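Hi R.,

Here's the chain you asked about this morning:
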Amino acid sequence: MVRRLSLLLGMVFLFSLSAHAQSDSDKFQLYGGFSYLRLDSSPGTNLKGWDVSGQYKVRDWLGGVADFSGNYESPGSVTTFLFGPQVSWHGRVSPFAHVLIGGAHFSGSGEADTSLAESIGAGFDRKINHLISWRIIQGDYIHTEFFGNSQNNFRVSTGILLRF
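And here is the predicted structure, written out as tokens:
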């Protein structure tokens, strides 16, 4: 029942956006998808989760991005909140690159720490129609310093991008 209701609400949301998207203006972009994070710890840990971001374009090739992700694997989790500029090239397949800064939070095994986080990333979006694209791949190098130790982490994600 909950699954059907969620599907129905999602469809209503998408159809309402399509009416707004007739202007073919893509000043705002909203992305959501699956995320895999390789946490540089001892030993290295593989975490799976989600990645969501929003972008406001100040030019057709330049925008400001807010990126949030959560990656989990027993017994720990890493949450990131990153912000910065993103450049992109328009086309049926659109490459993009960004430099982001913000924070990351680690919790697990009874310990927790929050760290400054810096990220450099890039990827490709494949246009499906005027409203929806598939983010084929997004790869990010994310530097953190949990518990005073430097970590060089790598995140890969894929999902759906909405433009409106």
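One quick note: The helical segments are 2-20.

Cheers,
M.
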